[in-house]
Amino acid sequence: QVQLVESGGDLVQPGGSLRLSCAVLGSTVNSYTMSWIRQAPGKGLEWVSAINSHGDSTFYAESVKGRFTISRDNADNALLLQMGSLKPEDAAVYFCAAGWRYDYWGQGAQVTVSS
């Protein structure tokens, strides 16, 4: 059974940075295409970023391109999302998902961007 556990959510000021982590339990992070998906209050799910299982291709939504970086920590078996130049519209619950069909989901990490 694959479990994903996000951490790192916090309150940050506009323009600030934050790093989210998603620990993969019961499997390895390099077994799947891994994605970050977010949901802002009162809105639907928005795909943010993905990294393929080989770790050599990354993909970003236009809204975060150039500000967010997805990566893997194979030693810690975790997916990471480095977020910079944060905007109020980045505030959301951030979920990590494993599999190209988003077969497994974490419980989410709350990111609040406010002064």
Task: Describe the 3D structure.
Strand 5 (45-51) and strand 6 form a beta hairpin. This protein is mainly β and 115 residues long. The protein has no helices and eleven strands.
Q: What topology emerges from the helices and strands here?
A:
Elements: E1 3-7, E2 11-12, E3 18-25, E4 34-39, E5 45-51, E6 58-60, E7 68-73, E8 78-83, E9 92-98, E10 104-105, E11 109-113
Parallel strand pairs: 2-11
Antiparallel strand pairs: 1-3, 3-8, 4-5, 4-9, 5-6, 7-8, 9-10, 9-11
Q: How many individual helices? A: 0
Distance between the termini: 40 Å
**Strand and helix order:** EEEEEEEEEEE
Q: What's the helical proportion of residues?
A: under 10%
Question: How can the largest sheet be summarized?
Answer: 7 strands, mixed
Mean pLDDT: 97
Radius of gyration: 13 Å
Tally of strands? 11
How is the quaternary structure best described?
single chain
Helix-strand makeup class:
mainly beta
Low-confidence stretches: none
Percent of residues in beta strands? Answer: over 45%
Shape: globular
List keywords for this structure.
four-stranded antiparallel beta sheet; mainly beta; 115 residues
Summarize it:
The protein has strands spanning 3-7, 11-12, 18-25, 34-39, 45-51, 58-60, 68-73, 78-83, 92-98, 104-105, 109-113. The protein has 115 residues and is mainly beta. A hairpin with a 4-residue loop joins strand 7 (68-73) and strand 8 (78-83).
